[in-house]
Amino acid sequence: MSTISIIGSGSMAAAIAGRACKAGYNVEIVSRDPAKVRALADKLADKANTGTYGAPPSGDIVILAVPYSGIAMVVADFGKALDGKVIVDIANPVAPDLSGLVTPHGSSGAQETAKSLPAGAHVVKAFNTIFGHVLIRGGRLDAFIAADDAQAKACVSTFVERLGLRPFDVGGLPMAHTLEALGLMMIGLAKNGAGTWDLAMNVNIG
Amino acid sequence: MSTISIIGSGSMAAAIAGRACKAGYNVEIVSRDPAKVRALADKLADKANTGTYGAPPSGDIVILAVPYSGIAMVVADFGKALDGKVIVDIANPVAPDLSGLVTPHGSSGAQETAKSLPAGAHVVKAFNTIFGHVLIRGGRLDAFIAADDAQAKACVSTFVERLGLRPFDVGGLPMAHTLEALGLMMIGLAKNGAGTWDLAMNVNIG
Questions:
Q1: Integer angstrom CA distances of residue A5 from A48, A54, A57, A153
Q2: Are A126 and A90 in contact (CB under 8 A)?
Q3: Which residue of A has its CA nearest to B184?
Q4: Whose CA is closest to B194, among B186, B203, B184?
Q5: Does the pLDDT of residue A140 top 90, yes or no?
Q6: CATH superfamily of B3-191
Q7: ipTM for this prediction
Q8: Confidence at residue A103, expressed as pLDDT on a 0 to 100 scale
Q9: Over the stretch B67-95, which tens digit does the pLDDT of each residue have?
Q10: What's phi and psi for B5, nearest 5 deg?
Q11: Residue B105 DSSP label
Q12: Using the beta-carbon criterion (under 8 Å), do A185 and B196 form an inter-chain contact?
């Protein structure tokens, strides 16, 4: 099985890395904080390694598992090292008070990230509508994907499927806005009508 | 059982009216096209009546079942007749080519509608994430609701529940934007990953 790289050492990084290791992937974890990334890799046993922050990641798929506010720095720090990679943007660009999205009109976090990446990198929006603890818990989960590059999208779709999720293509990268709004809607749902964060959104067909 | 009023005579008007009649509501249907509204009321049997376009609706709940582009005219034509009513906005304010939302930055269709209504009317966003043919088909369906006025929201929540749907409060009226984005996301899903319009979004808890 191939290698995937994860930049970040928080709860989403841990949740995706955990499922990827179980699915047989070699997982490279990279972070500005070597101690945190080492601790996470140790927990994940021998399928996980640590990489060098800012150096070209080993995986063809690179997951940006940092908060939206931290993406610009990561992209600047890696620069050309991300060229040619499939970049998975999992961020929910929500205001600190969770009242709305912080993205510009007519754009999305994923599109803003795409603008700052090397031209040969392909951004795929995914995972932002699945809470980290729900991803760890497992069970039937649907994963929504938006991207412009068909090959990059197919690549992430296969990855997601091997992780035991059901991938659903929602369209091109501009549809990332709808997924980011869905992320915010789920936060609203958790705080209001559902009364729990232990929730997922599923597609019911037919 | 109380009366609800529906302004519109299209597929969503028919779907909501059909379920409301079955649930025992008296349904008043109102439209600028008397022939269409008469034909719809006749199909729905003796629980449905037609009302006069522009006159005060009989129901405390008034469902605006017209396209987003038609709401401004309806609101202007009814004017003060909608004062004190619970106004249910079911519109998906999507561009004709379905590429995005047409609402202003930081707002939503429901909030724009609220601005043009009499001060005593309370807008509730609901039903926009359920396709009309799916609403007719039945089965387990989740209905997402956003509103600022707690009493209006509770009122619509009860209505939705009596229709056999599971209501979920996602927060205040600004959260209508997330529901409108979810409506667009479902269109993208139907055209892309799901490959069918016969789909619904459900909440999976625990």
A1: 10, 12, 6, 16
A2: yes
A3: A178
A4: B186
A5: no
A6: NAD(P)-binding Rossmann-like Domain (3.40.50.720)
A7: 0.95
A8: 97
A9: 999 999 999 999 999 999 999 999 999 99
A10: -110, 140
A11: T
A12: no
